[in-house]
Amino acid sequence: MRARVGDVVEFESEEAFEAWLKEQSQEVCVAIATRAASRAWPNVTGIRFWKTGEDARKAHRILALLTGWALLTAAVAAVRPTPEVKSAASAARFAASAASAASAAFASASAARFASASAASASAASAASAARFAAAAASAASASAARFAAAAASAASAAFFARFAASAASAIYSDAGLDPETLFALPVWHEAGTPEGLRLKHVGDTLLDTDPAFAFFARWYRGMVEGKPLPWDLQERVALIDPKIWEQGPEAVAAEIEKIVPEWRKEQAANANRAPEFEPPSVQHLFEAPRAVSAGAISVAYSITQGFEAFRAETGLNETPETLVPLEAVPLHLRRIADILREGDRSPEIEQQLREEIGRLNKRIEELTAALDAANKQVTDLSGQKWKKVAAGTAIAWGVVGTLATAVWTVSGDEVGARQRVETLQEYRNVFQELYGETMGPDYCIDPGP
Question: For the chain, which terminal residue's Cβ has fewer other Cβ atoms within 10 angstroms, N or C?
Answer without folding.
Answer: C
